[in-house]
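2024-03-11 09:14:02 INFO worker-7 job=invfold-0412 stage=load source=structure_tokens
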């Protein structure tokens, strides 16, 4: 190995709209890399993008023996005990694929990567950088909406490697013409707030803090309803917004918190905080660096 490659680890976030990688070794600061944007790519296109990004990451890190690097992978959907991606609306080419062996083959690795969901990876990445006591609920808003609950940093597993499918909650409030998606159904939080949903409604995801568009106001109302439900169900000490879109909502947090707290059920915790993550765009890639073992369902 080259100097500095001892205990070399890489986390790869294979997202619905782009790929992010993070390399860690010894006490060096992480090296992070974002791949090119993609939209419903083929498996072959993803493999080529992965190889290209991998070579560039190794070059930046100054590593030569790529096969010896320990790799963790996260994907935007539930994975079963074999590491097979069960569903992913924005990454259909990998549904039904055992992700670990596939990445191992594409990159020529000596070890099979561990696999976890992007929501769990993002929560772990944020928690490891900013560990706080108690229960944290991490809501990831990007191409879609997902989330994870961590108790003192340990994942609360309920179904399909997740704490629940947060983006599939019906937050329509009985709206007759509520938006829908094929994956999440009518009135789901993801149908209001995911990047694909916002683009379909004419909102530029890069300007989500601008509430002049009616669809963005509707999306924030849906998010407030969703958070109120999550507070009653999970009673977290804090809710942290993650993901490319979640981080951009920072200017709207005071308004959002006011909506959440207004007439909130007594089943919710009396004291909780609402904030955006501090780690940033690469939280899931950093969380995948050391994939935790997922308990069997």
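2024-03-11 09:14:09 INFO worker-7 stage=emit residues=297
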């Amino acid at each position: 190995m080259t100097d500095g490659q001892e205990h070399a680890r890489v986390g790869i976030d294979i997202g619905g709209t782009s790929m992010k990688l993070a390399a860690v070794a010894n006490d060096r600061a992480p090296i992070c890399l974002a791949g090119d944007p993609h939209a419903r790519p083929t498996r072959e296109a993803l493999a080529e993008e992965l190889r290209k990004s991998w070579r560039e990451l190794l070059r930046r890190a100054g590593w030569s023996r790529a096969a010896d690097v320990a790799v963790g992978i996260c994907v935007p959907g539930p994975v079963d005990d074999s590491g097979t991606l069960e569903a992913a609306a924005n990454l259909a080419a990998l549904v039904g694929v055992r992700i670990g062996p596939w990445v191992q083959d594409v990159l020529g690795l000596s070890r099979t990567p561990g696999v976890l969901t992007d929501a769990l990876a993002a929560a772990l990445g944020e928690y490891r950088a900013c560990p706080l006591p108690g229960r944290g609920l991490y809501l990831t808003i990007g191409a879609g909406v997902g989330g994870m609950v961590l108790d003192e940093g340990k994942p609360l597993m309920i179904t399909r490697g997740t704490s629940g499918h947060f983006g599939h909650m019906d937050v329509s409030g009985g709206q007759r013409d509520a938006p829908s998606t094929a994956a999440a159904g009518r009135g789901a939080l993801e149908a209001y707030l995911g990047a694909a949903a916002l683009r379909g409604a004419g909102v530029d995801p890069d300007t989500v803090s601008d509430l002049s568009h009616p669809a963005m106001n509707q999306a924030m109302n849906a998010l407030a309803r969703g958070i109120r439900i999550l507070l009653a169900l999970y009673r977290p000490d804090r809710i942290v917004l993650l993901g490319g879109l979640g981080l951009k909502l920072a200017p709207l947090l005071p308004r959002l918190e006011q909506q959440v707290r207004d007439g909130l059920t007594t089943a919710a915790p009396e004291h909780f905080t609402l904030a955006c993550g501090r780690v940033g765009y690469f939280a899931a890639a950093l969380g995948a660096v050391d994939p935790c073992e997922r308990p069997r369902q």
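2024-03-11 09:14:09 INFO worker-7 stage=report msg="The chain is about 30% helix and 20% strand."
2024-03-11 09:14:10 INFO worker-7 job finished
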